[in-house]
Automatic annotation (TrEMBL):
Residues 38-186 form the N-acetylmuramoyl-L-alanine amidase domain. One of its GO terms (biological process) is peptidoglycan turnover. It comes from the Bacteria. Gene3D superfamilies: Peptidoglycan recognition protein-like, PGBD-like superfamily/PGBD. It catalyses: Hydrolyzes the link between N-acetylmuramoyl residues and L-amino acid residues in certain cell-wall glycopeptides. One of its GO terms (molecular function) is N-acetylmuramoyl-L-alanine amidase activity. PANTHER family: N-ACETYLMURAMOYL-L-ALANINE AMIDASE AMID. This is N-acetylmuramoyl-L-alanine amidase. Residues 194-210 have a biased composition (Low complexity). Pfam families: Amidase_2, PG_binding_1. Its EC number is 3.5.1.28.
């Protein structure tokens, strides 16, 4: 799911609460902002709930602003809880009221995880790892939900429900295993480099010739994009299938290079999407082909959208992914990647 922009959101006309409440667990405070949109009556009652689904918002809009966004109109998406960078929890839907939110409907139950049988938790992140405070709140919120339901829940990702790249920082199986362990109340497994045992003095070892840098070689669409950036532009981009600051920087550099070579824009290829790069962006639409389209496709995968291919062809799948990205980021959903879409996509 994507975050709404932090501005241009008004208080909903439907009744909503913004006062905090203390949950049944003394150490946990849950702020509430309830709305009547984007949720449905849960069939099967509370007994149907078996999954605790973790998402990332794909933006830096606050948890409260997310609640306001979903409370104002039909968005075809929502979640039960949102967690801010500092760990503050906001509740959009009280599961005890008998409703479920719309957070894994894209999977259509193919993998056994549905809106009806799950609780959705969105963590504010634009692709970076969750903060320690957010991870701690996930664990407390999970324990709280288990407590009020009287049973343990399965901890899963949006990815597990639909194969959408969400939460993007935790598509990697090892990172997800560590986050899941923390959510369940344990300590994440960490690799510790043990110091080598001391050895008696010996003859100096012969010089070793330097070897080529080894890359992760992960599978996945983000890794495919990373390998393409490395092969096409000679950037030192690891193919770890994780979207982070380096991948973002190299993607912006690739865009700047293409704008220079194709349109003579004379931009500094520095990886910073500033005013000059914004002004230089061209509009890319359906039936376009080339490296700029590849960059759009790669960044859509990084942001959790599926353009239906990484081939440099702006087809219907790419156009629909652009439309969905625009709609979820406060942009006009016209399926055209223009300056404002590039700024959101590369920002």
């Amino acid at each position: 799911m994507r975050s709404p922009p932090p501005s241009r959101r008004s208080r909903p006309s439907a009744p909503a609460m913004t006062t905090g409440r203390v949950s049944s667990m003394a150490a946990l405070t849950i702020n509430t902002y309830h709305g009547s949109f984007n949720k449905s009556r849960r069939t099967g009652g509370l007994g149907a709930i078996v999954n605790f689904v973790e998402h990332y918002t794909g933006g830096n809009g606050s948890a409260r602003n997310n609640c306001i966004y979903f409370a104002t109109a039909n968005r075809n998406a929502s979640a039960d809880f949102f967690i801010d960078k500092d760990g503050t929890i906001w509740e959009y839907n009280n599961i005890l009221d008998g409703f479920y939110t719309w957070h894994v409907g894209d999977g259509k139950g193919k993998y056994g995880i549905t809106n009806t049988n799950s609780i959705g938790v969105e963590v504010v992140s634009d692709g970076e790892d969750f903060t320690a405070a957010q991870r701690a709140s996930l664990s407390k919120l999970y324990a709280h939900c288990c407590s009020i339901l009287g049973r343990k829940l399965n901890v899963v990702r949006h990815y597990d429900a639909s194969r959408k790249y969400c939460p993007a920082p935790y598509i990697d199986s090892a990172k997800w295993a560590a986050l899941k362990t923390e959510t369940l109340g344990g300590q994440p497994t960490q690799v510790v480099n043990k110091p080598a045992a001391s050895k008696p003095a010996s003859k100096p070892a012969p010089a070793v010739k330097p070897t080529a840098k080894k890359y992760t070689g992960a599978s996945g669409k983000i890794a495919e994009f990373q390998r393409w950036l490395r092969a096409t532009y000679k950037y030192d981009c690891d193919d770890d299938n994780l979207f982070g600051p380096k991948t973002r920087k190299y993607a912006v550099m690739a865009l700047q290079s293409e704008l220079n070579s194709q349109f003579g824009k004379e931009l500094a290829v520095d990886g910073a999407f500033g005013d000059n790069t914004y002004a230089a962006c061209v509009s890319v639409r359906e039936n376009a082909r080339g490296n700029i389209t590849r960059i759009i496709q790669g960044m859509l995968y990084c942001k959790g959208y599926d353009p239906k291919g990484f081939d440099g062809i702006f087809g219907k799948g790419c156009a629909e992914a652009v439309r969905a990205f625009q709609a979820n980021n406060g942009l006009t959903p016209d399926k055209v990647a223009g300056r404002n879409t590039f700024r959101k996509l590369m920002g």
